[in-house]
Amino acid sequence: MDEVAAAIADPVRREILVLLRDGRLAAGEIAGRFEISRPAVSRHLRVLRESGLVQDELVGRQRLYALDPQRFRELAAWLAQFERPTGWEHRLDALETEVYRTRRERRALPSALDDKENTA
Question: pTM to 2 decimals?
Fold first, then answer.
């Protein structure tokens, strides 16, 4: 997870990841979208490849890069613990809590109340 976090710490690398979100791109296409030198983009691609966030494949004379989202899962799971539910998520969480509380209270009631329910 530390290697992934270090790789995405750089804004150029994050932008490369966003570019690769929609599919494979050649190294030249990626480099053409930045105002930095091709060797600099190549170094960023190497860091992303070494961290496992992207995979490269040599197709003919082109090196194609593709995103590997598997490596994000551990980091995403860790980050998710800091999210607070909003809107409907918050309301559904409150409803779930109320359902659990009601079930717990019903189980704790004496069986006499169950007898009343059975006589009806």
Answer: 0.66
